[in-house]
Write a structure and sequence with these properties.
This protein is α+β, with helices and mostly antiparallel strands. The chain has helices spanning 2-24, 85-90, 159-164, 166-169; strands spanning 32-38, 41-46, 50-55, 69-75, 78-83, 101-105, 113-117, 119-125, 130-134, 141-147, 153-157.
Length: 174
């Protein structure tokens, strides 16, 4: 059991180290994305749009909010609003498992916001993907989708579009 915790800490630290390395080397920005799964979709997230990936922790519910707004969690003394993007997109709650992760959005985009992903897939090189036709307009994805060498479709999360969308800005139930 202790070795599993060390491995998890090492994995978490390696992702944090890669995030920091990308921030320091701006020339890598366009080609480095974190691949995740959200509600059965393969999703790419620009590493500059997030600050951390965390294992699922306790989220305190908040009354009178929409179901996709899960509540708040304490990350080293700072409260973060945690959102279930899968539920926002498909009205089906993300199943919490040992693979579920919380990603914290960069303060450059918005303060103290995080969201769930079903699982991390790994780092992806954006330049190796082929652009496919545009998709339907959504609250958080860029309009283009992409295909990797194995034929998997990928959406690109637009964190700025997400946090500025009308749906996301009003999490309280009406």
């Amino acid at each position: 059991m202790a070795t599993e915790k060390v491995k998890l800490r090492d994995y978490q630290q390696s992702i944090l180290d890669k995030l920091e390395m990308i921030r320091e080397d701006a020339s890598n920005v366009p080609s480095n994305y974190l691949g995740v799964e959200i509600s059965g979709r393969n999703v790419l997230i620009n590493l500059l749009d997030i600050t951390e990936t965390l294992v699922m922790t306790e989220v305190e519910p908040v009354p009178l909010v929409k179901p996709w707004f899960m509540g708040v969690t304490n990350v080293r003394g700072v409260l973060y609003a945690i959102n279930d993007l899968g539920q926002l997109l498909d009205e089906q709650a993300t199943e919490i498992s040992s693979n579920t992760r919380m990603l914290l959005i960069s303060d450059d985009i918005s303060s103290n916001i995080g969201f769930l992903v079903d699982r991390l897939v790994g780092l992806r090189n954006f330049e190796k993907l082929k652009k496919k036709k545009k998709t339907e307009k959504t609250v958080c994805f860029q309009p283009e989708r992409y295909e990797d060498e194995e034929g998997n479709l990928w959406y690109v999360l637009d964190c700025e579009r997400l946090v500025s969308s009308k749906e996301f800005e009003v999490p309280y139930a009406v």
